[in-house]
């Protein structure tokens, strides 16, 4: 353990989908909590939640609310993080931020504990939690990079609606019900809530997550590209991404093509991944065993399967990677960072 035996922990965005998972994860992990604070917008302040069976009243997230807080887990949107994370740090807290607000800031470590926990030593008060789709991919790619080298990644994602929040989950359910009842649904959330056009997600696939940038890629795709390079310390890595929203409630899936530096067999790659931290290998075509999002829900691990050699490039491999986007993709990675800060005596 670190310098203290227990900590004052604040969860910012406590009433949201990820905030709820953060609370459940802290409980499940028996995190050394001396006192818990639930913080949220003015609108949600006063809501009653629990921690290990005891009632906790949600307070408004203000700068003063961070007095005495040791660890603050943020998941309340980028603008809230930009305003309040520096205020929390000023008052002595270490912030683990689950938004995109600080991910690419040079002086902010962007951390996936299985990959780059040593970067935690360089924190200046704020640590960024990467994008959900980036996290599960780098967990699977890091043991490959370490052992046989990695120079190219092409990823297509198949992302669950829970990544867009509770309203997107409700929209999927309502649209599916309306469609099955022969009624017309009115899309209002996806692909981007604030966008001009909205499309039905039920029984559909939307090849847009976040808004488009000038180069034709979406922000989600650019996040995966830039974050992967930063986390893995591979600025020269050739990487591109296509991110697609599917009518799945939880669990992101990814089809990933990689090119490595030396020829290895599929068996060697499987062995490497099965021994790696945070990974469960599910790969037996004869038994139809492979990762699926439905079966990943509630698990902290990253599931990898369908590993096969490219038919034309001896250095090319294809992988299928699945994880619960609200857990390893958000809440669990945040709590895991907090745990690692304690284990490494950084806090």
Report on this model:
There is one protein chain. This protein is an alpha/beta fold. Helix content is 30%, strand content 23%. It has helices at residues 17-28, 78-90, 113-116, 132-148, 166-180, 219-231, 266-274, 293-296, 327-343; strands at residues 7-12, 33-40, 48-51, 54-57, 59-60, 71-74, 94-97, 126-128, 150-159, 238-245, 252-260, 279-281, 302-309, 316-323. Strands 5-2-1-6-7-8 form a six-stranded parallel sheet, sandwiched between helices. A six-stranded mixed sheet has the order 10-9-11-14-13-12. Helix 4 (132-148) packs parallel to helix 6 (219-231). The mean pLDDT is 96.
Task: Summarize the topology.
Layout: E1 7-12, H1 17-28, E2 33-40, E3 48-51, E4 54-57, E5 59-60, E6 71-74, H2 78-90, E7 94-97, H3 113-116, E8 126-128, H4 132-148, E9 150-159, H5 166-180, H6 219-231, E10 238-245, E11 252-260, H7 266-274, E12 279-281, H8 293-296, E13 302-309, E14 316-323, H9 327-343
Parallel strand pairs: 1-2, 1-6, 2-5, 6-7, 7-8, 9-10, 12-13
Antiparallel strand pairs: 3-4, 9-11, 11-14, 13-14
Helix pairs in contact: 1-9, 4-6, 4-9
């Amino acid at each position: 353990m670190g310098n203290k035996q227990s900590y004052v922990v604040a969860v910012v965005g406590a009433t949201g989908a990820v905030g709820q998972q953060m609370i459940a994860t802290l409980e499940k992990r028996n995190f050394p909590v001396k006192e818990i604070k639930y913080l949220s917008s003015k609108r949600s302040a006063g809501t009653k939640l629990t921690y290990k069976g005891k009632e906790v009243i949600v307070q408004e997230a203000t700068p003063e609310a961070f007095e005495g807080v040791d660890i603050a887990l943020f998941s309340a949107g980028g603008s809230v993080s930009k305003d309040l994370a520096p205020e929390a740090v000023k008052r002595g807290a270490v912030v683990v931020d689950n938004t995109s607000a600080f991910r690419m800031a040079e002086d902010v470590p962007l951390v996936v504990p299985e990959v780059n926990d040593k970067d935690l030593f360089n924190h200046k008060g704020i640590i960024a939690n990467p994008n959900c789709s980036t996290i599960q991919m780098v967990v699977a790619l890091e043991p490959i990079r370490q052992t046989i080298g990695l120079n190219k990644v092409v990823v297509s994602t198949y992302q669950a609606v829970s990544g867009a929040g509770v309203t997107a989950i409700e929209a999927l359910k309502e649209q599916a019900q309306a469609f099955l009842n022969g009624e017309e649904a009115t899309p209002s959330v996806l692909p981007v809530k604030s966008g001009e056009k909205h499309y039905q997600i039920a029984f559909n696939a939307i090849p847009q997550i976040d808004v488009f940038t000038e180069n034709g890629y979406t922000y989600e795709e650019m996040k995966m590209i830039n974050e992967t390079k930063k986390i893995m310390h591979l600025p020269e890595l050739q990487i591109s991404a296509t991110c697609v929203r599917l009518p799945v409630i939880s669990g992101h899936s990814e089809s990933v093509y990689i090119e490595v530096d030396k020829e290895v067999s599929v068996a060697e790659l499987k062995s490497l991944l099965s021994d790696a931290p945070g990974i469960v290998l599910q790969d037996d075509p004869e038994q139809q065993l492979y990762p699926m999002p439905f079966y990943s829900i509630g698990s902290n691990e990253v599931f990898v399967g369908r590993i096969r050699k490219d038919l034309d490039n001896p250095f090319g491999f294809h992988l299928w990677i699945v994880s619960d986007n609200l857990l390893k993709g958000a809440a669990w990675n945040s709590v895991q960072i907090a745990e690692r800060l304690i284990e490494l005596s950084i806090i």
